[in-house]
């Protein structure tokens, strides 16, 4: 079927309701002549309702006329607008959105399969979208779906091999400026030439029980790019990548993650799994993600991690698991960091004026080539570590913690970290325990107070406090006290002031 110079190649609905069951729409066509904006290669619906189940849409497309100007096609299969209601169930959309370019100007398709603008509600369940926008020579934004301002609900659906193609296009599977709710769906091997390999969104996005795998964006947001709030529940982001830019899996603004797993995502620049403004993650896992900075996470202002795990993440520069830039806040509680690697800050890196707070967490076998095997900090504000364990972390200096300014350590255990367990400008160590055969265990450049803390080790002499390093000199207890007095510093050591 062909609609010449008008909308709806097979069906046009203006008011009323149409119900479609087990129907097939193939090779329906919107053919534009002098018109510059058309839509709905198969179906156009406005001011009415479309209810369909078990339908197939394949190879619905657009065509042009030689010598005509640039064209805009909205929805190569379905165009919904003006308070329409769409309910799509158990349907298939394959290889729609292919342009037969025979015009003087370019062909721009918004929604390789479906275009929505101002519809009342749109619900898609149990449906499959594959290979839409892939082929032909049109420029396509929203390889499968393009949604403007409408609330879109998607459940139990699959989006595979959809493409946003042309120069700098968004949303390989889906482009949305309306609220977006996704449940129990899969996004696999979708591709965009700029942002959002699977999804590009500017409104609130909620994702539950869904899987994003092998999606790719040329710039940022290998799986998902959003400029608004994003909330994730019990989902999986795996093997998503970007060419250049940030956020191997997600580029976002304010992100909340509950019970979500991020693995094997890669960013060439920052944030192997997630890049954004703020992140609150609980009961989430980050494994084998990689980036230049922030192997798993890079957040500009705030990171709050609880009951989560970071394993085997890699930064070719700083922050193997987490990177907090200048003036950011990184808070970690009840979490585990294992085998993360970076140049500095094998697990966590806090840049200038940032603030790092760690409690009830474990850091095991993290590696920094230079400083801060587990944690690196350059914090003007006082940072803190409490009730945490650091074991077998490795760095050139500060195998467990490297902090250039002030840090307070409380009720924590440090075992076999190499070399120099803690490097610090100044601070307080209280009710903690250090065990190591390497000295020094603590290297201080300004001043330190110690209370009820045990140092266990094999220093070169029993006079040393198990290899305690103070102000650049290997000292025994009396020299430690004398240095503090000579430098007009206050030393609080096991209950006494000096």
What would you note in describing this structure?
The protein is mostly beta strands and 498 residues long. The chain has 1 helix and 66 strands. The strands form 7 sheets. The protein has a 17-stranded parallel beta sheet, with no helix packed on it. The longest helix has 10 residues. The protein starts with a strand and ends with a strand. The N terminus and C terminus are likely disordered.
The multimeric state of the shown protein is single chain
Q: In which range does the helix fraction lie?
A: under 10%
Number of strands: 66
Look at the helices and sheets and give the structural class.
Answer: mainly beta
Described by strand count, sense and barrel closure, the largest sheet is: 17 strands, parallel
Shape: elongated
Strand content: over 45%
Low-confidence stretches: 1-5, 459-476, 490-498
Number of helices: 1
What's the N-to-C terminus distance?
93 Å
Q: What is the mean predicted local confidence, pLDDT?
A: 86
Return Rg in Å: 29 Å
